[in-house]
């Protein structure tokens, strides 16, 4: 017994030392960098007297008092708040990956604040916090409503959060595109900037953190009982539903306050609780004590590092933490409890009568749509149909856009079908699994590496990025026998990296910013004849090749064991399908941008029309994907003429709510 007690004591001391080191080492490094920064700004003998001075003889004192110190304070406060928020959400939802970014809270708060800033600034007079809280609460409620039918399982919540976040992101991007004069400032703020101008933010945020901390302490006992089953918790006198609602309220309010104060600081709320748990904080009391400290030191250190890195402009702290959080998400995936059979069926598959009768009608509708997009439009005198003379002038302008849109839509529709059948997951799509994000990341890296970006170079860079992201995602799934939920969450990590890097570019003041915003938004208005040729040739080649994969696509949804039993060489089949997925995705991303739900929508629409077999579903998805993007491109040109809405944004803005409706109807 004495030996056991001694062993337990040694282990407890070791874990305690690990926790102290986890917080202490970053704190020491951050303190050193802070002191070095202070000395560069102001001599040490002036620090104290400048702290309470009423007026400043030296401008450096002004920067010290109203910029440096408030920034230091808000980094500590926001980091502590996010550490506490992540701990509460992970305990309430029993989900080690729950945090404000992954469950959609941050995206909703950002949309609400962006709308208020651009169109209703009077709402901000009563406090940005309340606007952010309203947006964050609504988006979180939407996520919980979508996940309710699957008993709030971890993967159901993350997938629902992904869909809500993508929808909110498309809305935010659309608002950015429509208000270019404010785009750079809004991008910097949304990327999580800790730059301060006075004490107002610190003084306004501190009471919220104090109240949230007191509420978390009062909820400690009932939250601890959530480690038991709901029946066990009820037998001990607590109501799990009320406890979860109270914990969620505190967490959502606190994370919304952080967004209102400094923008989105990604993944600190995920990293801090995960790191303290790995360091030995096993009980909720320990995590609630150590996670805020870890979050504060982590954000403090990150903020100091981004100020000393040798870049032309400062990287927003939220972007820097996203680069940390995405790899951490990969590391935490094996710890995620899953139930693939239930969580894989996030969308309903509505059985309809055979859809072959719709194919000819769809082709006719597509031909009519293409003709309408070519000849029908708006001008200075209103709506009109182009005459023969006008058509000759309009053809060189409209034809490349239409060919690019229809080709990209067809490619994304086919690729979405390939991915859903290969993984057996109805949520699989280039946008969701990070393939589009990987391609865009490759292209963005090319933007950084060189100032002269050619189309062949962009294709090569995008292809490499798509293949690398697919390899990473497939390897994650391979370790878990192609666990569908882990594939999705791996895609979230890749997409997060791409989003963070694009935010760096957008906040950098690069002279190519307008081109980059248009491309990221999914615009076709810079499409050329060369783009149209590349897209059309790739789409035609894809449609010619995919019929050769029909047998594989019919067998793969049966599962790995059945596929091997029927003679498939899974490694070879997957390699071929990955190439067929990555090449068209790269081309589509290059010509239409990374943001759209076409690869997710088209296969589901085809299935709802009755196309359940692989071959008809592939061609129906291609047809529907082309029609969706052509319609989005035409609508984007016409709706707010003479201004334009990027086709990818319009498709995503329609596709996101559509997907949420499908998920709602598919709840079991």
TrEMBL record:
Query: Hey, what's the signal peptide range on this chain?
Result: none
Query: What Pfam families does the annotation carry?
Result: FecCD
* Topological relation to the membrane, as annotated: Multi-pass membrane protein
**InterPro entries given in the database record:** ABC_BtuC-like, ABC_transptr_permease_BtuC
Recorded GO MF terms: transmembrane transporter activity
Q: Which positions are tagged coiled coil?
A: none
Q: What UniProt keywords apply to this chain's record, in alphabetical order? A: Cell membrane, Membrane, Transmembrane, Transmembrane helix, Transport
Query: What is the annotated localization of this protein?
Result: Cell membrane
Does this entry carry the keyword Transmembrane? Answer: yes
Q: Which GO terms describe its biological process?
A: siderophore-iron import into cell
Transmembrane spans: 20-42, 68-89, 101-123, 130-149, 155-179, 200-220, 250-276, 315-334, 355-376, 402-420, 432-451, 457-475, 487-507, 527-550, 587-606, 618-635, 641-664
NCBIfam families, from UniProt?
PRK10577.1-2
Q: Which family does it belong to?
A: Belongs to the binding-protein-dependent transport system permease family. FecCD subfamily.
PANTHER family to which the protein is assigned, alphabetical: FE(3+) DICITRATE TRANSPORT SYSTEM PERMEASE PROTEIN FECD-RELATED (PTHR30472:SF37), FERRIC ENTEROBACTIN TRANSPORT SYSTEM PERMEASE PROTEIN (PTHR30472)
Q: What is this protein called?
A: Fused iron-hydroxamate transporter subunits of ABC superfamily: membrane components
